[in-house]
């Protein structure tokens, strides 16, 4: 198991394994968050946080809910809002540095084509 956390440690996200790759997306929100997304099946992500420690943000179709720490503001993960969604994503920037450095980063053109650039 690997644990990602926000800066202050109030929100922790546990995942079963190191991802093979993470995604750096250049869409309007990801470029502002500076996140590296690691994708996991919906039931394999465990969030450890006190009640009220997180807040979320969604826009437009409200298909994705970005979750952040209410104290330090770090985006820790996102959830798809559809009940049938198969996966969610964890911000790998919260992983320990030695774990993050060993993962291949893929660049996604989410701003225009929705295709990987590598």
Give the arrangement of secondary structure elements:
Elements: E1 2-5, E2 11-15, E3 21-25, H1 30-33, E4 37-41, E5 46-49, E6 54-57, E7 64-69, E8 75-80, E9 87-91, H2 97-101, E10 104-108
Parallel strand pairs: 3-10
Antiparallel strand pairs: 1-2, 2-5, 4-9, 6-7, 7-8, 8-9
Summary keywords:
118 residues; mainly beta; three-stranded antiparallel sheet; 2 helices
Brief write-up:
The protein is 8% helix and 42% strand. The mean pLDDT is 96.
Folded structure, characterized:
With 118 residues, the chain is mainly β. The protein has one domain: Metal Binding Protein, Guanine Nucleotide Exchange Factor, Chain A (Beta Complex). The chain is 8% helix and 42% strand. It contains 2 helices and 10 strands, in the order βββαββββββαβ. The strands form 3 sheets. Strands 4-9-8-7-6 form a 5-stranded antiparallel beta sheet, with no helix packed on it. A hairpin with a 6-residue loop joins strand 8 and strand 9. The protein is globular. The chain starts with a strand and ends in a 10-residue tail after the last strand. The mean pLDDT is 96.
């Amino acid at each position: 198991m690997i644990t990602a956390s926000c800066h202050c440690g109030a929100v922790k996200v546990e995942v079963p394994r190191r991802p093979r790759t993470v995604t750096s997306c250049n869409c309007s929100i990801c470029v502002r968050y500076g996140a590296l997304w690691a994708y996991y099946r919906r039931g394999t992500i465990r969030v450890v946080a006190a009640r009220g420690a997180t807040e979320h943000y969604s826009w437009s179709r409200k298909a994705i809910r970005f979750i952040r720490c209410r104290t330090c503001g770090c985006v820790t993960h996102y959830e798809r809002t559809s009940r049938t969604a198969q996966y969610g994503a964890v911000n790998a920037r919260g992983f320990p540095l030695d774990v993050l450095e060993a993962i291949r980063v893929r660049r996604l053109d989410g701003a225009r084509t929705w295709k990987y650039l590598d």
